[in-house]
């Protein structure tokens, strides 16, 4: 597993957080921040449900050579952690968004900035980790489809030319 593939969600989340930190944006400066929170909760719920469905699809593919190769090279733990991290982060993001409804409207600018930066970090980590597992699952699916096509090409049409004239 390449190091870039392993850590790029964390790097992207950190970069986005640093960029927003230097912009000095707080929650108060964003109009209709409640609508943003509603949208994030909705989209994260949809992505979490998609990942749950994807896990059930991957389970049905356990007998394919692609999944056997993942097991043989002992990459199953990495695959499961790549799936579980965005799911856990999405749940944390949803809970955090709900808590921002209650505690996000603060008069303390530093606290408001901290709340916003934590929101940006969780959101960007969730999105980048979700993209990572999406691309991995598409790659697995593509390999499974290629495997099925090659198996179909291997099965040849039976030769029935001399069925009646074969020696008994």
TrEMBL record:
<feature type="transmembrane region" description="Helical">
    <location>
        <begin position="115"/>
        <end position="141"/>
    </location>
</feature>
<keyword id="KW-0472">Membrane</keyword>
<feature type="transmembrane region" description="Helical">
    <location>
        <begin position="39"/>
        <end position="61"/>
    </location>
</feature>
<protein>
    <recommendedName>
        <fullName>DUF2254 domain-containing protein</fullName>
    </recommendedName>
</protein>
<keyword id="KW-1133">Transmembrane helix</keyword>
<feature type="transmembrane region" description="Helical">
    <location>
        <begin position="82"/>
        <end position="103"/>
    </location>
</feature>
<keyword id="KW-0812">Transmembrane</keyword>
<feature type="transmembrane region" description="Helical">
    <location>
        <begin position="7"/>
        <end position="27"/>
    </location>
</feature>
